[in-house]
Amino acid sequence: MLTPELLSALADWVEQSVDLDAVLALAQSPKPQPMVSCAERSLAKSSTRIAAARDLAFQFYYEDNLDQLRKAGAALVEYSPIRDTRLPDDIGGLYLGGGYPELHAAALAANESMRDSVRAFAQSGGAIYAECGGFMYLTEAIVDQESRHYEMCSIFPTRARMQQRLAALGYAELEVISQGSWLSRGQSMRGHEFRYSIIDEMPDTLERPYRVHRAHGGSSDGFSIRNVVASYFHVHFGSCPDFATAFVSAASVKARGPAM
After folding, report:
1. At what angle do helices 241-256 and 63-71 cross, to 10 degrees?
2. Where do the structural domains in the chain lie, given as residue ranges?
3. CA-to-CA distance for 116 and 123, rounded, in angstroms?
4. H helices of the chain, where?
5. Annotation marks residue 132 as catalytic
6. What is the DSSP code (8-state) at residue 57?
7. CA angle at 237 for the pair 9 and 165, rounded to the nearest 5°
8. With contact defined as beta carbons under 8 Å apart, do 131 and 235 qualify?
9. CATH topology for 45-162+227-256?
10. Is the sign of the CA dihedral 108, 119, 85, 94 positive or negative?
11. Which residue from 95, 97, 91 is spatially nearest to 47, judged by alpha carbons?
């Protein structure tokens, strides 16, 4: 909920972090952007189905990310973790974007068959990319500010706990520091963080293939289990198109099934 206090905090952050004069100068002399046709977006080669969560709990995606996935050969299929009882058929990948799962935690927890479906997909080697709210959904539980626990997918051995104050807000850069799942060491991407939750300490044995370096100091980890990659960081795929290509490639392998 956008309270006057939150709006004031956001205004202060923008004033301190954004070069408003530069933004205004760019707005006064815009450069024409190339148009992308619907045919180019859909691409005939789009055959690898990737399910994208889209409902009241999960609703934040960079639109460019979805375009990057289509260009890499993905056919996107929307589904609802709140309403649907299982994942769509014949998918090779799963994209869980940001949103407000904490506001719909009871409904997400009540949909046990969907949580089982997501967990089974991960355990079978399905390629999953999750960020922020999507990452929270993959933990053992979301704990609200009244200490109520709502069971989630239990893929990552931690719990997401809601805080009274912002836990992170601002631009950041992701650096892949080790080969993991479908990530390639040396990749770097830009994006942002905006969250009110933190997670409990993850086990030391859990793979941490990348670090997120915040523009104003501090860092956090990205985590990986099997072919699942997740963190609080919202990646802008346009900053590293190879990321979308690698995700679709991993999803394609899952969709084809194991080699005989």
Report:
1. 60
2. 45-162+227-256
3. 10
4. 4-17, 20-28, 38-42, 63-71, 105-110, 112-123, 133-137, 241-256
5. yes
6. S
7. 20
8. yes
9. Rossmann fold (3.40.50)
10. positive
11. 91
How do the pLDDT tens digits run along the chain, 260 residues long?
Answer: 556 666 676 666 666 666 666 666 656 665 544 433 333 434 435 579 999 999 999 999 999 999 999 999 999 999 999 999 999 999 999 999 999 999 999 999 999 999 999 999 999 999 999 999 999 999 999 999 999 999 999 999 999 999 988 887 888 888 888 866 778 887 888 888 898 899 999 999 999 988 888 887 777 888 999 999 999 999 999 898 789 999 999 999 866 554 33
* β-bridge partners, 99: 58
Pairing of strands 234-235, 188-195: antiparallel
Q: Where are the beta strands (DSSP E) in 73-177?
A: 74-79, 93-96, 98-99, 127-131, 139-143, 149-151, 156-162, 168-176
Are 81 and 113 spatial neighbours (Cβ–Cβ below 8 Å)? Answer: no
